[in-house]
Amino acid sequence: MRRRYPGVLALDDVSIRVMPGEVLAVIGENGAGKSTLMKIMAGVTEPDSGELRMDGNRVRFASPAEGINAGIALIHQELNLHEHLSVAENLSLGREPHRFGWIDRAAMKRTAAAQLARVGLSVAPETELGELSTAARQMVEIAKALSAGARVVIMDEPTSSLSGDESERLFALVEQLRRDSVSVIYISHRLGEVRRLADRVVVLRDGRTAGELGRDEIDHDRMVSMMVGRDISQLHTRRPHPPGAPCLEVSGGRIDLSVARGEVVGIAGLVGSGRTELLETIFGIRRSAGGTVAVDGNPVPPGSVRAAVLAGMALVPEDRQRCGLFLESSVSENATLAAIGDAPASPWVDRVWQRRATANVIERLGVKAASRHDPIVELSGGNQQKVAFGKWWLRDPKVLLLDEPTRGVDVGAKWEIYTLLDGLAAEGLAIVFVSSEMEEILALADRVVVMHEGEVRGELVGEAISEQAIIRLAVGDDVCN
Amino acid sequence: MQLKNIGIFALLVLIVVTATAIDGNFVSPANVKTLIRDTSLYGLISIGVAMVIITGGIDLSIGSMVALCGVMLVQVINVRYESSAERAAIVEVAAEPRGPFARPAVRLEDSPAGLRDGDRLVYRGTIGETSLHVARTLQVDEQTWVECRDSLHGLTAAAAAGAIPVDVQRIRYTPPLVACVAVLAFAAALGLIHGILVTRARLQPFVVTLCGLLIYRGLARVWTGDDQVGLMTALSEFKSRVTGAAFQIPAPLIGRISGRADDWTSVVWVDFPVTGILLAIVTILAWCFLNRTVWGRHLLATGENELAARYSGLPTRRLITLAYVISGLLAGLAGILFTLEWNSVQPGSTGNFYELYAIAAAVLGGCSLRGGRGAILGVIAGAAVMRCLYKAIVVLGIPQEWEMVIIGAALLSSVLLDESVRIYRSRVRRAL
User: Fold this and answer.
1) Which residues of A touch B322 (CB under 8 A)?
2) Which residues pair with B251 in a beta bridge?
3) Contact B315/A306, CB-based, under 8 Å?
4) CB contact under 8 A, A315 and B311
5) Does A338 contact B at CB distance below 8 Å?
6) Cβ contacts of residue A35 below 8 Å, gap of 6+?
7) Is the ipTM of this complex over 0.85?
8) Closest C-alpha among B111, B96, B95 to residue B145
9) pTM reported for the whole predicted model
10) Residue A252 neighbours by CB under 8 Å, 6+ apart
11) In degrees rounded to 5, what are phi and psi of residue B272?
12) What is the pLDDT of residue B305?
């Protein structure tokens, strides 16, 4: 079995091969191109160029259905199952055994039981899928893939939401697939699992193949150095921000965090390590499971965004189109929404204030818009993000929480945002930002908090901040400094 | 003003001009008054539902709420007559209004003091007990005369033959303004419950208000034993004050067009109903709320993207609840006004489909059912379009059963037009 895909958008000249009965692990940092690669293989997206070969024959998938028919199954985090149907119905969906147009329920159950036995899942076929745990659903999904004749099973972060025991069962299943000559492509951040399961490891970095390790060469340090080993871009030089008095204090619960005025703290960690959840809990969007938040020594009532805002906090969310902006509304309305309640004329809308405030945002943050009355959806990603910033900047916050501040932003705007953040820190704001981009963390943070599975795994300050150290902590390595 | 709003006003003008061209009576002073009144009544509930639609919700309970609030108004006012031991005798009848009398009147002997509007004089006539309804008492030449709201021709002969003994029954009722306040508070409370169920219990607005539709209609029927209830002849002064004309507006041209006058220069006066003033007040308040206050801005933002509103620290749940309270309050107000207008409530049918008329008006007026978009003036125009279409059908002599077909077709075509304009504009925008 062979497949090559040179020159894909997020992938640049990546080629991988999988043999029957081989477990191939694909690893890389967030955004290295793993998911894109998998989606192409499964027929979710098409490559711009390059080709896919199975058994030496060139194949093309226009849709995931075609991929499944050809024997490639993608098991990803959002499972492709129907919660309200039974396990048996899910397994036979679209291929229901029937006689004279009527569904043959007995046959359906029999087949389902056999399929479940094959993956070692002991649930009754008539159980409603919604009642099963994530792990069991994943097994059902794999059983479904196998029953459709899958010869290549792609698993995307399969253990991210599984407990230790559940993971063990999954590993056993992978071994079983290997014995059945099914190829497994295993994507994971967890290097321990990779070391244990993989016959071969392909490391991706920035959409390129960074290296390949055979069975005997797989070890932790090699994998880490291959994942990291890239030139750190000279986009932005880090300027240390001298911290002032403590401003934001998060204590109790599972997280302790203190951020001083003028300090920039980066939160690193893998996708799913709880970084976004941490920011959203501090900001009151999520209820905290114990623990308190204080700004300038004043406790902030938990679970209320309003209270957080009044205490001087601001959050620029990761998904700005869904959580940050009102796409149909104008630049002006978006920019002034958060601050207008505190404008002098409140509760009346003061148009003069609004015009002036919008002009301030546009000028200070360098928003490029044809008119302040334009719907914000017409702006570029970078300019949208600047408005999402400006919305809070108008309120003069004390604490700025940023979730992936430069996601979907072009390089120029990125640089502008970094400069802006440096400026805000110099003005005395306490800034906490989550980023999956190493360069961003290295370029901005005075201190890096690394999270792993919902907990702070370690903290790096000043000179100790390095890509190596961050990755080591992020993948859950116990070597702490 | 957006293109969208111009469209609905243009449609309104088109309907009025077409209907008038076919039959000038469409703009007769009486019809214009009716149009203003009906637009006001339906406009009130349309503004209410528009507030809810702006949040991305829906209120299906309005029609039932109108019926239940109407029933409640009648029941709370609770007109009743107390038989006292008071007696009097009719000694003279003036069957036609004359002299100081604006109505038929009777002269009473041994009359108890202080007969008031609404009190009854009960006498035993040829067909059993009959009531005369007092309008007012006058002293003429030291004789007590009572103006009645009834025809007195049948009494003339009997009175001439000898004094007719009457029992005096005193009217008792809860002061109507108190009752109105109670009804409005009740309606607002129902809206509050809707809001809480939607925002706290996370139920879908459609389901919550559908249950409201069923429950309130049912309660209205249970409360009345499924019988028509009304204020009958009581409280006529209050009724006429609310349903009557507030003032008159001069209207040129329509006298000639509707055939009421011979030349173009004559000006006729059109009654402007009190309900029209209420609508004007509510419209101004709603418009200011939505366009000139921070809360209105926040409400629109919440409707456009509730998640982003929450991330912006807006009190989204309170705002959405507020919208349902406003909708309930206005449905309650409309319930009061409809009841006073028609003088009775039919618990099984009063208000049927009103929620749909209101939703239609809101959609015609530019509210998006997806939320986040709405214009109060457009909604009023939408309500006016619905009422004008309805009246045009009557005036033009189109069989009444066509009403819903025509209104439905008008709504459909306006939404289609709006959608194609939107697509066209976004295509133009993309091409630029």
Assistant:
1) none
2) B268
3) yes
4) yes
5) yes
6) A156, A187
7) no
8) B111
9) 0.81
10) A290, A291, A292
11) -105, 115
12) 93
